[in-house]
Design a protein that fits this description.
- The structure is a single chain.
- This protein has 13 helices and two strands.
- The chain is mainly α.
- The chain has a domain of 91 residues.
- Strand 1 and strand 2 form a beta hairpin.
- The longest helix is centred in the N-terminal third of the chain and has 48 residues.
């Protein structure tokens, strides 16, 4: 083949490949533009309509909503010196206690501290919040059920509450949602899967899964056995999706299944582990971004957040469902949230259960979900 002819062939091939990839590049550019516009509009809503003069967001909920929203905005590249962020941090700082906790009153001490820890870690520059975070870490670890210096939380590994975290009320039972936030907070401040607290949490998380096996011998494990997760096996067991009439089992639902899957990955389990395999099988069967499978529109924005955390933890840009359909889950999540964003930039669930009628909270959830798609 002479040089001229080879050059023509190479040129033609290059032109073909360029043309073939152009639609993909355009689609990616359009998605990136949509993403940035959504984020900018949401943060503008929070700055102009969501934030109170004292820096808070929904202060009637204590420091938790403010910390969650601020974490979300920080994860989108805003500086701790940004006026929105600085005012919000100052508000949350008022809830720091000498025992290391960051809370208002006695109702949600553990939950509020965990969410605040993530905010302070995201805004931690030059070790400014290192002492605060160290004390907060010790506080939430002491509130975990298991071996602890807090007498009310001291239990044996055989107890179904072992390893779990609850809201932080006196004698409250642990649940998977709070344990998931607990693991998020520990991971944020540097605990990896070798942490004793993380491994204790894995014991509890495994007992929230509808999967019979050596890691789950609770009465509920074999009744449904579909690999999904529910709220808690403690205090008689509870699933927000209800109880199965035929078996008496606790029904699995998506927001807790993604929370459980993410938590197992944070605790060092790999896709070869039977618990992770079973969870992924459930997710493949119920992949959906129009509802929170098992709950419909209940807790939809919380679901988007746990969905994004889990699939980001799996490190899969594409996710294939049980029908063999490959999903670009980030793009699909961006599209789903774009379709639901209000004209003022906020998100609100028409089903106000679990405070999702609060535009600050749901906008925070949505921004956190989107932050896991940030390249």
């Amino acid at each position: 083949m002479n040089l001229h002819r080879r050059s023509l062939i190479i040129g033609a091939l290059a032109a073909f490949l360029f043309a073939a990839f152009q639609p993909c590049a355009r689609a990616a550019d359009e998605t990136a533009k949509k993403y940035e516009q959504m984020v900018d509009r949401a943060i503008a809503f929070l700055a102009t309509k969501g934030q109170a003069d004292d820096g808070s967001f929904s202060s009637n909920q204590g420091p938790a909503v403010t910390a969650l929203v601020t974490t979300a905005v920080l994860r989108h590249g805003r500086s701790p010196e940004d006026p929105l962020i600085a005012k919000a941090i100052k508000f949350v700082e008022k809830f720091v206690h000498s025992d290391g906790g960051i809370y208002e009153g006695a109702y949600n001490r553990n939950y509020e501290t965990c969410v605040a820890m993530m905010m302070f870690q995201e805004s931690n520059r030059n070790g400014r919040y290192d002492p605060l975070l160290k004390k907060a870490e010790a506080y939430v670890k002491a509130n975990q059920w298991g071996p602890t210096h807090v007498k009310e939380r001291e239990i044996a590994v055989s107890d179904v509450k072992f390893g779990g975290a609850g809201y932080g009320r006196n004698n409250d039972r642990p649940d998977l949602s709070n344990t998931s936030f607990f693991l998020d907070a520990l991971k944020a401040v540097g605990n990896d899967y070798n942490s004793e607290a993380v491994q204790r949490a894995l014991v509890f998380v495994s007992r929230c899964q509808n999967l019979e096996g050596p890691d789950n011998t609770t009465p509920f494990a074999a009744k449904i056995n579909d690999g999904g997760f529910y709220y808690t096996p403690a205090a008689g067991g509870n699933s927000q999706a209800g109880q199965d009439e035929a078996t008496g089992g606790l029904r699995s639902y998506a927001s807790m299944t993604y929370a459980g899957l993410k938590s197992m990955i944070y605790a060092g389990l790999t896709p070869n582990d039977d618990r992770v395999k079973a969870a992924i099988t459930w997710v493949k069967k119920h992949y959906d971004l129009n509802s929170n499978p098992g709950l419909g529109d209940k807790g939809l924005y919380y679901y988007y957040m746990t969905f994004a955390k889990a699939l980001a933890a799996l490190r899969q840009d594409k996710f294939t469902d049980d029908k063999g359909i490959e999903h670009d889950w980030c793009k699909e999540l961006i599209d789903a949230l774009a379709a639901r964003q209000r004209d003022d930039g906020a998100w609100v669930n028409s089903n106000s259960l679990w405070l999702e009628g609060d535009a600050n909270l749901t906008t925070g959830y949505a921004l956190l979900a989107l932050s896991y798609c940030k390249k």
